[in-house]
Amino acid sequence: MSWMQLTLNTTNEAVDWVCTLLAGTNFTTDIRVIKNTESNITDSWEYSINMYLQDDIYANTRRFEIENLLYPLQRTGLTTSIETDIVQEKPPTTEKFNPPLAIGDRFIVLSTNEISDESNSNESKSEKIVLKLKTSLAFGTGLHPATMLTLKLIEKYIFSNTFSNLLYSTKVLDLGCGSGILSIAMAKLGAKVLALDNDSVAVESTQDAVNRNGVEELVTVRLGSLGEGSNMGHWMGGEVGNNVETIDPSANFDIIVANILARIHITLAADYRRSLHRSNQQNGMLIIAGFTKDYEEDVVASLKEQNFEVIDIARFNEWVALALKLTP
Q: Which of 5, 129, 135, 171 has a CA-to-CA distance to 155 between 20 and 30 Å?
């Protein structure tokens, strides 16, 4: 059997978003993500993605639809255009599974397609917190630097004394919930979470993660956007359905966590402020990531205009995550 191979290059920032968009299609039978090395890297592209379609009478139609799906990312400079080749065999896969990944002092990310009562039992006997995710293409696998940095700040501030008197009643918004990894992490630390995303694939992935980790009582998953986010369309260039809910920013949350693009943070800065609850004991906290140091200054400036103060910064190579609090 011959295959149509579709290839594009993408930045570190966009590789997971490309995969999330592709996960919403039924066109690709196989997707390979390749980390470019110094010997094969082209310009600033850090990843190559190969997609394989059966080379039949429908292949060109499927290729056209995939090109249209990913065009917004190409237009904004996050990917190259797609190149097409016909190959007689797909290259063999080299990775059979993702090994358990330790993040911070307590989190262990486990990619699995099995829901195991035994692993839940073992976790209860340990101080480690296991985050079980179904193997999928949804953004937030736990391997991306932005996700790891966010988890470290979540562990530091949601589990620490910062909100200790609110533990098990802290209300958190996980904006752009992706695979659900951040939502289940916060739920296992005791928070009550609204997991929100305007992508239906992400909503399905998060609900699966919630069920897989047994935190249904603490996490509510909804298809929606926050405030002005509803006017920005699909944040990764896909299509937004008619049933996407708009969440009114009205001081409902103690903490907002958002691992999304820099331009979304800048647009939603005022909505972040209006969405956070303030009292005599606590001012609202914001934990954000999803951008590199090139965007840090603009993101911080937009948030300072809304009375946010940076209290912590986590970095990994060019990636940045920030913890901020509203000033009185």
A: 135
